[in-house]
Amino acid sequence: MRVDIRDNDALQAISPDALAAYAKAAGWAKVESYGEYSDVYAAEGLPEIILPRTSLLGDYASVVAQLIEIFTKVAERDELALYRDLVNANRDVVRVRAGGDDDGSPTVDDGVALVGGSRDMLLAAACSLRKPQELYHERADKGATDLLSRVRLGQTEQGSFVVALVVLIPPPTSPEDDAPIERRMTKRLIEALGAARSATESTVAGDRGAFVKAVDKGVSANLCEALDRMISPFRTLDVSVTWSRTRPMESARQSVEFAKADAAILREAARSFRDHEPQPDRILSEPRLIGRSRGSL
Questions:
Q1: pLDDT in tens, the chain (297 residues)
Q2: For FRET with 41, which of 4, 24, 47, 153 sits at 20 to 30 Å CA-CA?
Q3: Domain ranges of the chain
Q4: How far lies 252's CA from each of 93, 198, 241, 245, in Å?
């Protein structure tokens, strides 16, 4: 199906960093500057293209439309699919895919549980970062909830019921630039999910301490409860992260899959974590005076 994208707002949503990242991944390379705000990219067997370095150009939307047309012809894809790749090129996209009924339409309550569980799952990953004071650059006293407030729900997708969480990833400013907190959160998420998946399998095999061993990798009561909440209504649950093209990883996508039977194990792991966590402001016993009382002095 051919879709011709001409909406200015939609085209403006594609950043110059995203255009450059896509072009590089497709084989183009920068060969020279073009004027003050653009660069020339070329590749053997591909048409020469000019990429803007800023979205403040007066004709930016029309330039992006022309580039999408070129990219579409080269990749032999429809414009809508390519547009989605470009608009998410500077974002990590977390997709939570539920395998349920054949028509891919869960009940309202199950859909709400999936959306809420997805939010809680990502929040658990943010809370498990080693340096919580770094969760917000401008104000160190802000926490994981502020980081999560910058995450957006993506558009619905065809197929099984999918919740997409979109995390904007700042582009690197230098080759030595450390990963930003947003990327550390999504990396922590996929690490924690993999650890929870392995702990579930180890528990079935008889290792009663498997979940405790996974705490250092981000597994927590909150994560287990979120997974239980999402998995229980469905046959399968697949959570994947598609990494931003502007900060590429070794693999473009990583995923972890759970089955309905895993929910009970995760529920028990969450209960065990809760039973052993410290209770704030709890007095274990009445204090006793050592030696003489004040009145006997």
A1: 454 667 888 899 899 999 998 999 889 999 999 999 999 999 999 999 999 999 999 899 999 999 999 999 999 888 888 888 898 888 999 999 998 665 667 889 999 999 999 999 999 999 998 654 444 343 333 578 888 888 999 876 666 789 999 999 987 777 667 889 999 999 999 999 999 999 999 999 999 999 999 999 999 999 999 999 999 999 999 999 999 988 888 888 999 999 999 999 999 999 999 998 765 555 444 444 444 444 443
A2: 4
A3: 8-87, 91-276
A4: 11, 22, 8, 8
